[in-house]
Design brief:
It contains ten helices and no strands. It is an all-alpha fold.
């Protein structure tokens, strides 16, 4: 891409002012790097040299310059990413979850997939985040009874049983039934 002298003179001053503002704030390092890449390009450095200095890919630097020409300096400085892209407010989310409170309090099994079915076009992770924001948590039964006997107690109970080595309770009953009929 060929740059004319007008770009070098006008953009150099404009980029330098924006760089100084961002340096004072010390907040947005990525915007600083984007502006630094533009400034180095306006000085006449190659994309390969700029990519080594700033850490961007050479093609991204070309894209930055094109974006600067098309949309101006504000498109380079601004960060369009936001963390809150929810379609419902917190109150609307709480109202949505109220329909599942009755099911959960009744002791029925409530899974994320059931909630996801009611949620329109939402990823499963969105449902998990929604539940976490509202203080819901996973409740699962214990894998074993906490008052369970130890293995030694279980083995001694097996040895002391009246089944005398037989592995099946039902065979003992049939043997005792045969013995009672013979008498």
């Amino acid at each position: 891409m060929h740059f004319d002298d007008e770009f070098v003179i006008c953009s150099f001053i404009e980029i330098k002012k924006k760089l100084q503002k961002i340096e004072k704030k010390k907040r947005d390092i990525k915007a600083y790097k984007r502006l630094l890449a533009l400034r180095l390009r306006s000085i006449g450095k190659t994309n390969a040299a700029i990519s080594e200095i700033v850490g961007f890919h050479a093609q991204y630097i070309t894209d930055l310059v094109s974006k600067y020409y098309a949309e101006g300096i504000e498109s380079i400085v601004s960060d369009r990413r936001t963390s809150n892209n929810r379609r419902m407010s917190y109150a609307e989310e709480a109202e949505f979850l109220e329909q599942f409170v009755e099911i959960a309090e009744a002791g029925q099994v409530l899974t994320v997939h059931i909630i996801k079915e009611k949620f329109e076009e939402a990823h499963i992770n969105t449902v998990y985040c929604l539940l976490k924001r509202h203080g819901w948590r996973k409740v699962r039964p214990r894998p074993t009874n906490p008052k369970r006997a130890s293995k030694a107690e279980i083995e001694s109970a097996k040895k002391n049983s009246t089944q005398s080595g037989s592995k099946s309770y039902w065979t003992n009953i049939s043997k005792t039934a045969e013995q009672t009929t013979k008498k």
